[in-house]
Amino acid sequence: MISLMSYLLLLVMVLISVAFFTLLERKVLGYIHLRKGPNKVGLLGIFQPFSDVIKLFSKEVNFSHFMNFFMFLLVPLFSLWLMLVFWLNFLWTYNQLCVEYSMIFFLCVSSLGVYVILWGGWSSNSKYALLGAFRGLAQVISYEVSLAIILISMVFFSGSYGIFDIIDFQSEFWLMWGCVNLMGVWLVSAMAETNRSPFDLSEGESELVSGFNIEYGSYGFALLFMAEYGNIIFMSMISSLMFLGGLGVFCLNLLALMYLFLLVRGTLVRYRYDKLMSLAWSSILPFSILVLLLFLLLKLFFLLII
């Protein structure tokens, strides 16, 4: 019962964090553009996220005649459910919930995110949505390979699939200091995995109107983007735990990585699609495999010494 109550409380906090993360993004992008962000609703715009939620959920839902009705309705709920399931891997102080093979669980849940993009684009019965879904499908699958290999490399190095063991392994030395290049590649893959700039090709407004979610409005649009921002927060948390120790200044590390996602969106232009795929298969994947072999050799070397 304590575990269930803790998890439900965590989910409420995550949804509130998502609301204020959208406000932070609009503020940061505003100052990058040398303008103010939202500042009218409440003190300094603090109630703007709640105003947006009320507006979105009260809008009319439009349905096309030839769309797959039930799948069209199901996809936003499925995306939000996947985002909330991710948070079973949260770092609890008193072990209310502890997934023993948390890294494997993370890979299993993240691989299901492909179906949100594919089903959302296909069920909309729109050529723009379908093209965006195909792009997003190829992108997420491509970068998920390198993401998994980097994760397995960290598992080899730390000797455990559990997130607590990886944190204990960094008790005296953050892995970031010895694996700066690996952390950079991980963050690039994480941005591509969450469909964030400059890798948001599945939502290319200039050529696909709005990508795979073009037909979604009202609650469907809101749920899809709540899931996206929740995934960004979770990827920032996992990155912090894997490379920045996880304890002590955990909240500061988490906020810094979340801010990095916003800074990249405000400063970098969208990648061209062929360059995006070339980066995944020609650069990041060979580097990830090389790091995996290097970590495996180091682990064998240490075992032979001991």
UniProtKB/TrEMBL annotation:
Membrane-protein topology: Multi-pass membrane protein
Top-rank taxon, per record: Eukaryota
Enzyme class: translocase
MF (Gene Ontology): NADH dehydrogenase (ubiquinone) activity; NADH dehydrogenase activity
Known catalytic reactions: a ubiquinone + NADH + 5 H(+)(in) = a ubiquinol + NAD(+) + 4 H(+)(out)
Keyword set, alphabetical order: Membrane, Mitochondrion, NAD, Transmembrane, Transmembrane helix, Transport, Ubiquinone
EC number: 7.1.1.2
Family indicated by similarity: Belongs to the complex I subunit 1 family.
Reported function: Core subunit of the mitochondrial membrane respiratory chain NADH dehydrogenase (Complex I) that is believed to belong to the minimal assembly required for catalysis. Complex I functions in the transfer of electrons from NADH to the respiratory chain. The immediate electron acceptor for the enzyme is believed to be ubiquinone.
Protein's recorded name: NADH-ubiquinone oxidoreductase chain 1
